[in-house]
Design a protein that fits this description.
The protein is mostly helical. It is built from eight helices and no strands.
Length: 228
């Protein structure tokens, strides 16, 4: 239960900082600023609750841990539920705060939901979104598995992971707004209307597939240090 509570809090931090930056400060800090907000949120969570739960904050990461042989399936289910709860709670808080602005509306200003196609950011296709989310999640989970293995310096893991997420956002905000995390996508989509909900499947399937593959590759030894 302690680990599950930590995952709720950690995922709350991720979504509140990242999506909050997009909603409240997007016009001022731009996509680069939003990228760093997501990255720094990982650093904050990693060094605060990482010692309790590992600070997965992401069902794709947890699934990668399963396929890498570091986590059981029942643990994964508990983590995924907790992560989704944290993301939904953070989105609700963002919505409550944003609603205090006279000209705010979800339809116009959004909640940081992911998407693709006509009307979303640079209007990339579904295939572009699918490929990006799969590849980016594979890279992200590969970095996490590598940075947290026994042979790696533990003190640097949170920084490496956070900077990687920031870099992924710098590449992909124009494409999908960057998910690489089903929980992060579910939270905003639940309150953003039918378009976001209709596209949500991609931001669940692609990250889970990318994370699972990263775990398999790690378990095969291709990305794992011999000393692990």
């Amino acid at each position: 239960m302690k680990k599950n509570i930590a995952e709720i809090i950690g995922t709350f931090i991720l979504v509140f900082f990242g999506c909050g930056a997009a909603v409240f400060m997007g016009d001022s800090i731009g996509w680069l600023g939003i990228s760093f907000a997501f990255g720094l949120s990982i650093v904050a969570a990693a060094y605060s609750i990482g010692a309790i739960s590992g600070a997965h904050l992401n069902p794709a990461v947890s699934l990668g841990m399963v396929t890498a042989g570091r986590m059981s399936v029942p643990e994964f289910v508990g983590y995924a539920i907790s992560q989704t709860i944290g993301a939904v709670l953070a989105t609700l808080v963002i919505l409550v705060i944003a609603s205090g602005k006279a000209d705010y509306s979800v339809a116009t200003n959004g909640l940081g939901a992911n998407g693709y196609g006509p009307g979303y950011n640079n209007e990339y296709s579904m295939m572009s979104a699918l490929v990006f989310e799969f590849v980016a999640t594979f890279i992200f989970v590969t970095v996490i598995l590598g940075a947290t293995q026994k042979a790696s310096p533990a003190a640097m893991a949170g920084l490496a992971i956070g900077l990687t997420l920031a870099a992924i956002h710098m590449v992909g905000i124009a494409i999908t707004g960057v998910s690489v995390n089903p929980a992060r996508s579910i939270g905003p989509a639940l309150f953003s209307g039918s378009a976001a909900l209709g596209q949500l499947w991609l931001f669940i399937v692609a990250p889970l597939a990318g994370g699972a593959l990263a775990g398999v590759v790690f378990a095969m030894g291709a990305t794992a240090a011999d000393a692990d």
